[in-house]
Amino acid sequence: MSTTLSATRIADDAFEFAVSDPKEAQALAAHLREAKMADDVVAGLNRVAVYFDPSATEDISAWLQTIEYAPRPNDTEARMIEIGVTYGGEVGADLARVCEMLDLARDDFIGLHTATVHHVDMIGFTPGFSYLSGVPKEWSISRLGTPRPRVAAGAVGLSAAYTGIYALPGPGGWPLIGQIDRPLFSADLEDPFLLKPGQQVRFRAV
Predict the structure, then answer these.
(1) SS3 content of the chain, % helix, strand, coil (to 5)
(2) CA–CA separation, 161 vs 181, rounded Å?
């Protein structure tokens, strides 16, 4: 079954589609990239942005006004990856506070977090930072009142019912619950980031 969508212009060099959820965003982004008309296509949680050369405005505008696509099985087929996490301690300095806010014992929290199948919904706010859905909506922990000036690469946070993983070091305000056992970014690889939108992740306590 095909879906018809229309884009809204949001800048001189960008259009945007509104979609229902991250899976539809990823399927539409894959379809748009295959057409090779745009300079870049970025999928968000419920938006897909299309960036282009302003000199091609007329062609791009006509192309985007009525997009029809039928998501194929491999558009939304999630690839599972297992990632080890060291929970708590110095690398997960906020775990005790998070457990207290959720009224969970430490082991119960870890058991639930590792039993869940997490889904990579979006990449951003910094390169490679992964937003993973899958935890209960009740786990809507707020961000820190004062962000840390530097968070290590591989740090795992929890906020707004998402698990977030920092691919690169930098400032961050997510409460930290642990550290992954493998890099999300490898500069020597052609495709340097490990996680992509659409992937499924299971965490394993190490």
Answers:
(1) 25, 35, 40
(2) 22
pTM (2 d.p.): 0.74
- pLDDT per residue as tens digits for the range 94-143: 999 999 999 999 999 999 999 999 999 888 878 889 999 999 999 999 99
How many CB atoms are located within 10 Å of the residue 52 CB? 21
Lowest-pLDDT choice from 8-12, 60-64, 112-116, 161-165: 60-64
- Determine the Cα–Cα distance for residues 27 and 74; give it in Å rounded to an integer: 9
Under a CB-based contact definition with an 8 Å cutoff, are residues 166 and 155 in contact?
yes
- Contact by Cβ (8 Å): 52, 38: yes
Distance separating alpha carbons of residues 52 and 101, to the nearest angstrom: 45
Give Cβ neighbours of residue 123 (< 8 Å, ≥ 6 apart): 129, 130, 131, 193, 195, 196, 197
| Token code pair at residue 106 | 């430490």
Strands 176-180 vs 80-87: parallel, antiparallel or unpaired? antiparallel
Q: What distance in Å separates the CA atoms of residue 81 and residue 118, rounded to the nearest whole number?
A: 10
Strand partners, 196: none
pLDDT tens-digit series, residues 154-193: 999 999 999 999 999 999 999 999 999 999 988 888 878 8
In angstroms and rounded to an integer, the radius of gyration of the C-alpha atoms of the chain is: 19
The tokens of 146 are what? 């004062």
